[in-house]
Design brief:
heterodimer; A: four-stranded antiparallel beta sheet; B: elongated
Chain lengths: ~230, ~290
């Protein structure tokens, strides 16, 4: 599905990733762990095409992501859903409108938008909040909105960058239940996190990055290293 | 797209207002120059269309002699038209001009007014030569011509055209820069949103569209404001202009002319708005993938 072949990313003199190679298969749920600054977000941004690798190849099936011209990048991004730590919702749009945005961008018909958004809001338990604005919602609800927006188009792969970073343990658990459900429906998930509780609870593949290098890739890994700080 | 455009404009209304005011003022000054230019052109055409050389004939001139002079003048290069004004015609003109002053009318008869030949030319530069030649005619008493008025008006028109073009060019540049800066500020405020849109798979057109439209809307609104301002000023100044240019049929301007001016200003506004937004959007989008 996604593979990194000897990828190095440098920012000036700083090496964010050094010669990393890994691949994620279709339908997999993979945690990308490591302390802050290890290079997790850089991996996600490279997959999204926001950054170009200094050397190496990034592939989706057989297509070189790093070779997609800027003008065609939107086509690749439509196959990818993203969930951000800080939700990145539009404050002047309602929850419904925020979730509908990727469909609107893809010029989906209004009736289809309505049915898809209602379905996904139902899945994440936000049907009753559809008409509210982000400022009127709690952190967990905002992250569920962000997740709904990421999967409403039915992407092949879902990237999540510290999705539980701003959530308390109970809400994080709830979020993880949703991620698992989405994964069980066939979406490949690559999640960058340093939340040890969720990594240990899900028991799935863990790729650990340390100082820009992959130091561990285990099929059913557990969190190692520094324990994360979660909200209580 | 229109919903996004509305959000963009009203989210920072003072910036939008600043852009509209600056472009309105620029277009107002440009339209004032245009109106003065068009008016001057009309005045010039009026003077050009009137007899530009008048040759007063001696009282003893015979009809055959008049015809001979007329034929000689008509045969000259650059002469457009030669018309004969008899003593009776001259009296009619005099009466028309002084119809409000019976005392002046009583004292004048056709006898004391001279007959004349009125000549219009195709080239203003030839006025003097024609006048000089007419003076040589034995049956011509006196010759007058409007060289000074027309030459002064032509030269004034030329100066106005150059000044107008320079000022318009400068103001257009200022307007484009204003839209560029204000839209640039708005884009910077929305940088995160644009980046999210890109990550959600928005095409470049989806992001650029509302921004281009925003610049164009500023241009159109400013064009309409400047048109209203300039024509309101013209309406207000009309009595003074009519008094100053008595006899020249300049005002009121036709509805079609007003509409054409509006069309021109809107086109100019669209170009200003589009160029301003094009530069600011391209500058920003170059920096993100």
């Amino acid at each position: 599905m996604i593979s990194f072949e000897k990828v190095t990313k440098k920012f000036g003199d700083i090496t964010a990733l050094s010669d990393i190679t890994f691949s994620v298969d279709k339908g997999e749920f993979v945690f990308l762990t490591g302390s802050s600054g290890a290079g997790k977000t850089t991996v996600i941004r490279l997959i999204l095409g926001e950054y170009l690798p200094t050397s190496g190849e990034i592939l989706s099936d057989k297509e070189r992501i790093d070779k997609i011209p800027k003008k065609k990048l939107y086509l690749w991004r439509r196959k990818v859903g993203v969930v951000f730590q800080d939700y990145k919702l539009f404050p002047d749009r309602t929850i419904f409108e925020n979730v509908a945005l990727p469909l609107e961008i893809q010029k989906t018909s209004s009736s289809e938008i309505k049915s898809k958004v209602e379905k996904i809001l139902d899945l994440v338990g936000l049907s009753q909040r559809a008409g509210l604005f982000p400022a009127q919602l709690a952190g967990g609800e905002l992250q569920r909105t962000s997740l709904a927006r990421a999967v409403v188009t039915g992407p092949e792969i879902l990237l999540a960058d510290e999705p539980t970073g701003n959530l308390d343990p109970r809400t994080s658990e709830e979020m993880m239940r949703l991620f698992k459900e989405i994964n069980e429906r066939g979406t490949t998930i690559l999640m960058a996190t340093h939340n040890c509780e969720i990594v240990d609870a899900v028991k799935t593949r863990v790729i650990e990055i340390k100082e820009g290098k992959i130091v561990r890739d285990e099929k059913e890994g557990k969190y190692r290293g520094e324990k994360s700080k979660t909200k209580s | 797209m229109f919903k996004t455009l509305k959000q963009h404009i009203f989210r920072s209304p003072y910036q939008s207002l600043a852009a509209i005011i600056v472009v309105s003022l620029s277009l107002f000054v440009i339209s004032v120059f245009f109106l003065i230019g068009a008016g001057s052109q009309r005045v010039l055409q009026y003077f050009e269309g009137r007899p530009q050389v008048t040759a007063f004939l001696k009282d003893e001139v015979k009809p055959q002699e008049i015809e001979m002079i007329r034929a000689r003048v008509q045969a000259k290069d650059k002469v457009k038209e030669v018309s004969f004004v008899s003593k009776e015609d001259a009296l009619k003109i005099y009466r028309e001009q002084n119809k409000d002053n019976p005392l002046l009318l009583e004292m004048v008869t056709a006898k004391i007014l001279p007959a004349s030949l009125e000549i219009s030319t195709t080239d203003l530069k030839s006025l003097k030569a024609i006048a000089e030649e007419l003076k040589e005619e034995p049956m011509v008493e006196d010759v007058i011509f409007q060289e000074d008025v027309i030459v002064a008006l032509s030269s004034w028109m030329q100066t106005l055209r150059i000044t107008g073009l320079v000022v318009a060019g400068f103001l257009l540049a200022v307007s484009v820069l204003t839209i560029l800066v204000i839209l640039g500020m708005k884009i910077s405020q929305r940088k995160d949103e644009i980046e999210i849109l890109k990550l959600l798979g928005a095409t470049s057109g989806y992001i650029r569209g509302p921004l281009y439209l925003e610049g164009i809307v500023y241009g159109i609104v400013a064009a309409v404001i400047s048109w209203v301002l300039s024509f309101a000023s013209l309406l207000y100044l009309s009595p003074y202009i009519v008094k100053f240019l008595s006899g020249v049929p300049l005002l009121p301007v036709s509805f079609l002319f007003a509409l054409e001016t509006l069309g021109g200003l809107v086109c100019l506004g669209v170009v200003i708005g589009f160029l301003g937004s094009l530069f600011s959007v391209s500058r920003f989008l170059r920096t993100i993938r």
